[in-house]
Amino acid sequence: GFTDSKVFSKYGILLKNLGELKEAEKFQKKAIEIDPKYMNAYLNLGIIMKYVGKLKEAVEPLRRFIEINPNHVNSLNILGNLLRDLGELKEAEVLMKKVVKLKPLSGAAHSNLGFIFLSKGENELALSCFYKSCHLLRFNRQNNPDPILSFGLISKSKIKHDIEQFEYLISKGIEAKKFLKLVNIYNKLLLEIDWPSENEIFSIDENYQFLLKDNYNLLLHRIETERFDFSVLNDSLDYDEITDDYLEHDFGLTYIDELLNPIALESLRRFLLCSTIWFGIKNGGYLGAYLTQGFANPLLLQIAEELRIKFPKIFKNYSLNQAWAFKYDSEAKNENSNLSGINVHADFAAVNVNFWITPSYANLDLNSGGLIVYDVEAPKDWDFNTYNRDQKKIQQELKKSKGKTIVIPYRGNRAVIFNSNLFHETDNYFFKDGYENRRINITMLFGSRN
Questions:
Q1: Neighbours of 195 (CB within 10 A)
Q2: Per-residue confidence at 242, pLDDT binned at 50, 70, 90?
Q3: Distance between terminal CA atoms of the chain?
Q4: Contact 301, 284 (CB under 8 A)
């Protein structure tokens, strides 16, 4: 019986990897039926259930597995994140604290605990977890479990950005000697490497690894933004009118001009220009900064908090679940450039806030550069990978549009608030050259998709 259940379970995993999820689920259940003591089948079943979005059904098999394997870190992580998605925050916190205890040097463990505190609205605790994970993942290479992904990949647009950022820091009198040395090293790379294109991501040649090992994609400089003791949202916003506008839309959508007051905007902008937190290298040539790797800061969480308080009918009781920033390359405007923004996708959340930090004067075409929001929702039965990445399926779905797609042009300090189920993408953008003119957007996700 035991060997049969093992075979069934392994075959189920194979089917999962091939995308045959219904069959994969059947085989795991069969393995359990043959031998209820074969614990791996419970773990595999839980993972498959989570993958297909049957979150509630995934909990029981994972709990069964953990009863017998109480210190199995991977399953504790999976169940903890799952319970967070289901709003079972107390139990999620207990599990994640256990993971942190078992693996104190794991950045991911601190990250996951941080997201649970974030969901509970315990911002101070969330920030301290995110700082800890950033320190572990980006302060040096020792504790990063994935050196290839984090330090081994490079693109021409990433190196160019880093040179521009280092030069900007030098111009502000920040650690000039250190950054001048790095500018020289990175310029040497720029000239010597045979780049296939602006945006292609590839592995760093061994000859250059020594030059980059103590500086590339690490937290070399970060400035702190404070939490202000006054409201950071613009005082003159008409909250009722904005709420009504959102609710009048078929699915929920509005945009706000002059979202932040000038002091908060300037503080956030300085943070994003000076902090070397742009670790995510994307195919379009743009870069990402993430909560768990240096982007989390008190001001950001204050903005999220005030949005929830000022717009209760839009944000209901949704907590902030995720946030990131993207920074783009102005060369996208050149005719033969293959740089681009983000493809059409939907997000795993209830409400999406997308706001823009670079001043309007950097935008060369005031009719573009912002966001395209379609009047089509991602089907409820699609899993994350489908509605986030499967361009072919998404394009078929977009044919259902009633022609009410909205193009919201770029303006500095403008925020678009919309139902996260709606498909959306970056509009074409034409921005001035120069480091300070790069387009920067911040995305915040509230609540979960269901």
A1: 16
A2: very high
A3: 39
A4: no
Q: Which residue has the tokens 């909560």?
A: 291
Average pLDDT, the chain: 92
Q: Is 353 exposed, middle or buried (0-12, 13-18, 19+ CB in 10 A)?
A: buried
Provide the edge-to-edge strand list for the sheet that holds 351-356.
253-256, 415-419, 351-356, 440-446, 320-327, 287-290, 280-281
Which tokens go with 239? 């909250």
Residue 365 pLDDT greater than 90, yes or no = yes
| Contact status, residue 367 vs residue 408, Cβ threshold 8 Å | no
Tokens of 111: 């990250």
Q: Say what the pTM is.
A: 0.92
Q: Is 357 exposed, middle or buried (0-12, 13-18, 19+ CB in 10 A)?
A: buried
- Helix 298-310, helix 262-274: angle, nearest 10: 140
**Could you tell me if 155 and 203 are in contact, meaning their C-beta atoms sit under 8 angstroms apart?**
no
Q: What is the DSSP string of 417-445?
A: EEETTEEEEEPP--B-SSGGGS-EEEEEE
Pairing relationship of beta strands 440-446 and 351-356 according to DSSP bridges: antiparallel
